[in-house]
Amino acid sequence: MSQRNIAVTDQPGAGAGPEDCPLPEVLALIGGKWSAQVLVELGAGPRRFTQLERAIEGISRRMLTVSLRDLERNGLVTRTVHPDSPPRVEYATTPLIEDIREPLEALTAWARRAAPVITAARRTYDSHR
Amino acid sequence: MSQRNIAVTDQPGAGAGPEDCPLPEVLALIGGKWSAQVLVELGAGPRRFTQLERAIEGISRRMLTVSLRDLERNGLVTRTVHPDSPPRVEYATTPLIEDIREPLEALTAWARRAAPVITAARRTYDSHR
DNA sequence: CGGGATCCGCCCGGATACTG
DNA sequence: CAGTATCCGGGCGGATCCCG
User: Fold this and answer.
1) How many cross-chain Cβ pairs, A to B, lie less than 8 Å apart?
2) B86: cis peptide before it, omega within 30°?
3) C-alpha distance from residue B112 to each of A21, A25, B119 (Å)
4) Where along chain A do its domains lie?
5) Which CATH architecture group holds A19-121?
6) pLDDT in tens, A49-103
7) CB of B16 within 8 Å of any CB in chain A?
8) Integer distance in angstroms from CA B28 to C1' D8?
9) Mean pLDDT across the stretch B43-49?
10) Which nucleotide minimizes the distance between its C1' and the CA of B3?
11) Per-residue DSSP letters for A3-14?
12) What's the CA A32/C1' C12 distance, rounded, in angstroms?
């Protein structure tokens, strides 16, 4: 997903360009098609692979795996394997994302309110052109 | 960009599925590679096309156009043409995005703080595997 | 100045099949 | 149960050229 190593401010030395904008980098972290939903689901508590698969309607095994690996790589979720049979793997969020839970919820709330306006704007734009 | 008409809650009737998650839809609105930076730049005040082009380092004319059209279509920015010669076009944000300015800034602030942790997590993950 | 049109490479993500 | 492997199409975004 974000296998491309986005900048995330390399080398603090040398002056750190003042024009860098971290926002796109955040979006690169959770901007995948499913990452956000995975995060939301895990926000409610630890979940197993199959639980997530069933909770997130429409996601494929592959994309769930990819998304989880990506989030894990960036330190946003943890993966713990319980040595059981059948295998049992649990995913959970890390404290890292605690601080963005609120902004993310604010965005979600905004989406609900703005939805009709956006839909209308689109219809206007599309009909005009 | 988000030419694909994402759901944005169609038909309020019929019960509106309780499982729908608006977060991915927001990200579809501003999750493009440049949209967020355009929004940030316009947040500082109205800007002309060339101003944006110079402010957002690395963007091409094409992508700036595409991003602006997309934002305009979704009602997030306005485009006003001043009948001058040479042509003069100004872009500005709409009141719609007022409400997400704060969450967006929170995300940005988070990005700055979390950057080193994320970088470290990545190195650990990559070296292990 | 502020675009539009076209071509194209690449990577995201879907479908399917196989595995410890 | 929890993945991995492979194939593949579509679209996102870069480069380049042209236009009013």
Assistant:
1) 144
2) yes
3) 9, 10, 11
4) 19-121
5) Orthogonal Bundle (1.10)
6) 999 999 999 999 999 999 999 999 999 999 999 998 899 999 999 999 998 999 9
7) no
8) 24
9) 97
10) D11
11) -S---S---SGG
12) 9
